Structures are given as C-alpha cells and as structure tokens.
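for the recovery benchmark. tokens below, seq after
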C-alpha cells in the first residue's frame, strides 16, 4: 500500500500537464504523506448544483490525503482496495467525485531491511510520463480529502513483494477524461496494472 509519494513539479506545471486551471494552490514540489495536503485534478463540478449541463473546465485544488481526515492522531483511509465497497461506490459512480492525483514517483516498502535495520524503500516512476496521474476519489467532511485507487500489481511490483499498486492512468488525455467524466462502467476499466516495461525503479527518491 502506497504511503508516500513525490510531486516534483510546480502548480503551473501540473496544471499544464492535465489541462486544468491552476487556481491559487502554491504547491512548489516535494513529498506527500498521509494527513498532508496535495493538489488533485477534478472535473470542476464541485460547486455546480443541479443536473449535468455544459462540461466545466478541470480544476486543480488542494485536498488532504486520507478519508476521512485525521482523527485521534491517526490518518484516514489512503487507498481504495475494493471499489465496490459501500463506503466508496456511491462516490465512484458519480464522476464528479473522481479525481486525478498528480505524482512524479511513489514509494513502496521493499523486501528485507538495510544494514541499519531500517525497512527498505523502493521508489517508482513512469518512463512515458514525468508527471503521471493516479486515479483517485474525493469526499468532503470537515476537511476536503481524497484517496488513491489500487489494483493488482504488475511484474515489477510483484518482484518487490507487493500485492497491489496505485492505478496509474495512461498518458493520453482521453484516458484522463474517461476517469473524470465517463460512466462508472466505462471508467472502472482503467483500474488495471500499469505496464511493467514503462516503470522506472529508483533506489531512493
């Protein structure tokens, strides 16, 4: 389960990658951990009441990673492992609650420990997307928050001993649009492992 990722791009660069309005988010690169705010891309319908009408421009806005937000010092749910769960399915069926989580690398715990007895970190990036999008879903409570969707691991993740990986969206803008706007029957087809041949493995971030 992914518990740390990096987003080494500015707000303007992220917005350009995903065809979104940058808004007022001052993001300036760095780590993202559970319980921290990070930019997400939405279909722009959060504040549009009533039936669907004209499509809205994509928006980039800050949300907190973990649903619901931190309670009693513990982070919320960071990863959706079962999209059919009653806790998630209502939001996933309504496309305005789906979002894209920009990242430049993500961390998974590796096998064994290093010479100092610390758990090994494995960092992974995507060869065809310097800034890639992870499928996400958002909810609102006291603080707007989001979670990442996960799927079966590809060969690279299995070799690292992982039983899941983030749902990395294809590079095409069409795939992004499908996740943000299509019916759930069509959008859920994107929940699949990313190609192992396009994964970059790094010893550290």
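predicted aa per position
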């Amino acid at each position: 389960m992914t518990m740390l990722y990096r987003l080494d791009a500015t707000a303007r660069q992220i917005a350009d990658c995903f065809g979104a309005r940058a808004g007022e988010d001052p993001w300036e690169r760095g780590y993202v951990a559970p319980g921290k705010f990070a930019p997400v891309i939405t279909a722009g319908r959060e504040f549009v009441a009533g039936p669907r009408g004209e499509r809205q421009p994509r928006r980039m806005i800050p949300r907190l990673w973990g649903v619901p937000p931190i309670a009693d010092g513990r982070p919320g749910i960071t990863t959706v492992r079962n999209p059919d769960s009653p806790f998630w399915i209502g939001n996933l069926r309504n496309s305005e609650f789906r979002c894209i989580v920009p990242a430049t690398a993500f961390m998974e715990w590796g096998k064994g420990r290093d010479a100092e007895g610390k758990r090994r970190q494995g960092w992974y990036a995507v060869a065809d997307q310097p800034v890639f999008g992870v499928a996400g879903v958002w909810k609102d409570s006291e603080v707007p928050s989001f979670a990442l969707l996960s799927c079966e691991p590809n060969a690279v993740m299995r070799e690292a001993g992982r039983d899941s990986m983030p749902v990395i969206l294809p590079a095409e803008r069409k795939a992004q649009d499908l996740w943000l706007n299509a019916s759930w029957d069509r959008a859920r087809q994107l929940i699949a492992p990313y190609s192992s041949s396009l994964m970059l493995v790094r010893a550290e971030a």
